[in-house]
Predict the structure of Nitrogen fixation protein NifZ.
Amino acid sequence: MIDPRLPKFDWGMRVVALADLLNDGSYPERAADALLAGAGTVGEVVQVGRHTESDTPVYLVEFPDGSVIGCLEEEIARAP
């Protein structure tokens, strides 16, 4: 059994996108592979959850345009 990974980021924490975040189909009203948040865009963690199959943290991050995007730890970092 794999030990669950503890979250690095908490609710309310400001984070920055490390790479361009593209639509993976989660936003059907937007084109496939549309840019949702560009690298360097700062957002705020509004919820912390877990991916059930891999038991890893998933963060819902609200970006300035109002979009809320599910992010993995590898896609975000603490904002300066």
